[in-house]
Design a protein that fits this description.
heterodimer; A: about 300 residues; mainly alpha; MetI-like fold; 14 helices; B: D-Maltodextrin-Binding Protein, domain 2; D-Maltodextrin-Binding Protein, domain 2; two-stranded parallel sheet; about 15% strand
Chain lengths: ~300, ~375
């Protein structure tokens, strides 16, 4: 692409008697033209990502009377709000680790099955499930395994009461369960290409050189897959860390979670003068998610490097 | 209802006729945005004429199924057919209402009037967002329920009631303390997160009063949090947010919520038989608040809306929705309150005195709750 771009440039430059300015102008027009199809996307990103992010950071350092201050951040890191940061980190971690575990083995099973139709169905279905969330998702689970949910009622008929023990849909373990609904499919989508990338020839080559199954996995399979799995884990982590509506409906703030806490500070009917503390907590979230996503991008690059070759 | 609507039309018909004659007289044309009472318009007819000229009213955060607002708006539209009502962000919160007033300042889309929780009325007034105005029925509003210059005034409210689906709940709860009974396992819910939702906050205050008595309970909300914690231990309390869907599905057959917000549960499914009871051990009242945007794009219609809401007609419409309008006492004395709707309100326990948590008490409760609620699990 770049090669072919430069060629007519040079031609243009020599034609106009070595006039660099002309060439440059041509070039910038060309760049503009090449990217013009992306303008709607840039506008979208500007309005819905860049401007809100900047305003969150800006207001995180503003007091109620417009003065600059670190007070919001200090309050946001005080015990009652710090617990929600910790709660969200915990939820993100456990939900990502369980999601990554089940998701990876699902993807692996589907991959080695060798059935093309199954692979297509799983990847399409995963795309749908991975994008389900919010209040509807919470209600799916209430309707399925809530007190009077379809599954609960039918299990009751055959003598199984899922509520006889300590199970609850409306706490930490319940949220981990509900989040699996979108975490497992997301893991499948993200790691499937990496698993497919493990070429059969490599395995054959290793076996021909006398490697056992264990040796193959130890020196070839696992090292190749670890960056992909870790990267996917970080993506899953950020995904659960930032989920809001489902958690809000299911736990009503009884479980300290950062997005829910921000919701009550910024949007609530109750606490009137701490909007900017919510912004400071938003800043915390931006930082955590940025770190996770930077890790994901780095690892994803490493994974795709050998996948292409 | 039908009678009062008709007489309303009759009155407005006469008023329009009068308006023509009034307009002929050289009345000093006041600027609508600084008018503080009907007198500045030379009476209701003058105000109606000014609003008709504006032809537009922007309201915000008024859900149609909330305290009968659907019918309140529809009746206004019928009464003033030339005025268009733009109902923005009907599911919005008080915080979003004030944010809209600030951010849309100067725009003709800015809300003309707001309906907010008390905390937001007070902070909005301190911020200078509201215009002072006294409706014609100002004297009927109790002293504690209005800002003395008319920057804000309470409108409708109710008491915290235990609502339950009689089909699923065989033994009717009578008091908040009853809700600890294991027969209600996995059945009790609040309407949302008390650190964000006003209804849920007052639900926790009610629990606090039930646990520690009127005086201590209102002052220290930790009593309520501890009571709810004990319900969680007993397995009766669910932290899920009650909604029409969870009621229809049977997940939340018992809720602690404002009595006037429970109508939607009754309508959620034909299988649901919703009943309300005011708990014998805590009668907590609360009112929402009206205020006029100081920089309202339609200042006359904003004021006309208030006159309408605080007229007997407007107040009876709220009453029809199961809410208690602020002028209820005065209207009952005059005999203008609709008797059928009054009879439909859940009965207060005999001799009960309604407790209205003050602004300071609510502020303290919220600050404490922000620390305590997240530790419930």
């Amino acid at each position: 692409m770049t090669e072919s771009n430069q060629l007519p440039n040079k031609v243009a430059a020599t034609k106009s008697g070595g006039n660099n300015v002309m060439g440059l102008e041509f070039n910038s027009n060309k760049v503009f033209f090449d990217y013009s199809g992306l303008i709607p996307f840039f506008i979208f990103a500007l309005i819905f990502i860049l401007v809100p992010t900047i305003s969150v950071v800006f207001f995180a350092f503003k007091g109620n009377f417009g003065e600059w201050t670190l007070e919001n951040l200090r309050v946001a890191l005080r015990e009652e709000y710090l617990s929600s940061l910790i709660g969200s980190l915990r939820l993100g971690f456990f939900s990502a680790i369980t999601g990554a575990f089940f998701g990876f083995f699902t993807a692996y099973a589907v991959s080695i099955s060798g059935r093309k139709k199954l692979q297509r169905v799983v990847s399409t279905a995963s795309g749908v499930f991975a994008n389900t969330g919010g209040v509807p998702l919470a209600f799916f689970f209430i309707a399925a395994v809530g007190n009077y949910g379809l599954v609960t009622v039918n299990l009751n008929k055959i003598g199984i009461d899922i509520y006889s023990g300590s199970f609850t849909l409306f706490g930490f373990s319940g949220l981990v369960l509900v989040y699996l609904y979108f975490q497992i499919p997301l893991m499948v989508i993200v790691t499937y290409p990496a698993i497919e990338g493990l070429k059969n020839e490599w395995r054959e080559a290793a076996v021909n050189l006398g490697a056992s199954k264990f040796i193959f996995w130890k020196y070839i399979g696992v090292p190749l897959l670890v960056p992909a799995i870790t990267g996917a884990f970080l993506l899953l982590f950020a995904n659960a860390f930032a989920a809001y509506a489902t958690a809000n409906v299911l736990t009503s703030g009884t479980l300290p979670l950062l997005p829910v806490q921000i919701g009550s500070l910024v949007n609530g009917n109750v606490i009137a003068d701490q909007t900017n503390v919510g912004m400071a907590m938003g800043l915390e979230m931006i930082i955590v998610v940025s770190i996770a996503m930077a890790g994901y991008i780095y690892l994803d690059r490493r994974t795709s490097k050998w996948r292409k070759k | 209802m039908r009678i009062s609507r008709r007489s309303g039309l009759l009155v407005s018909g006469i008023a329009t006729a009068l308006a023509a004659s009034v307009m002929l007289a050289p009345v000093q044309a006041a600027d609508s945005s600084t008018a503080t009472s009907l007198a500045d318009f030379g009476g209701l007819a003058g105000l109606e004429a000014k609003c008709k000229a504006e032809g537009q009213l922007n309201v915000i955060a008024l859900p149609r199924d909330w305290a009968n607002y659907g019918e309140v708006i529809d009746t206004f539209l019928r009464k003033y057919p030339g005025v268009n009502v733009d109902s923005q962000n009907p599911e919005g919160s008080s915080a979003q209402e004030l944010a809209a007033v600030r951010q849309l300042k100067g725009s003709n889309r800015a809300p003309d009037v707001v309906d907010v929780g008390l905390a937001y009325a007070i902070s909005g007034a301190a911020e200078g967002l509201f215009a002072p105005y006294k409706v014609a029925t100002w004297e009927d509003i109790p002293t504690g329920a209005k800002e003395k210059n008319g920057l804000w005034f309470m409108d409708y409210g109710g008491v915290i009631a235990i609502g339950y689906d009689a089909k699923r709940v065989k033994v009717a709860p009578k008091s908040i303390k009853d809700l600890a009974n294991p027969i209600y396992k996995n059945q009790v819910a609040l309407n949302g997160n008390p650190t964000a939702a006003n209804a849920a906050l007052h639900g926790v205050i009610a629990a606090s009063v039930a646990a520690a008595g009127a005086d201590k309970g209102v002052k220290d909300i930790s009593n309520g949090v501890n009571l709810i914690k004990s319900w969680k231990k007993a397995g009766t309390f669910l932290p899920v947010q009650a909604s029409s869907a969870t009621v229809a599905n049977g997940q939340t057959p018992i809720t602690l919520d404002w009595d006037y917000l429970q109508g939607k549960y009754a309508k959620s499914s034909t299988k649901v038989q919703w009943k309300k009871v005011v708990p014998s051990d805590a009668v907590i009242g609360g009112y929402y608040v009206q205020a006029i945007n100081k920089t309202a794009p339609n200042p006359a219609c904003a004021r006309l809306w208030m006159e309408y809401l605080y007229s007997d007609q407007g107040q009876n419409l709220w009453l029809a929705g199961g809410a208690r309008p602020i002028r209820l006492d005065a209207m009952q004395k005059k005999g203008t309150a609709n008797k059928k709707y009054v009879a439909d309100l859940p009965k207060l326990p005999a001799g009960a005195k309604v407790i209205f948590p003050t602004f300071d008490q609510q502020t303290k409760a919220k600050a404490d709750l922000a620390k305590l609620w997240g530790k419930l699990n």
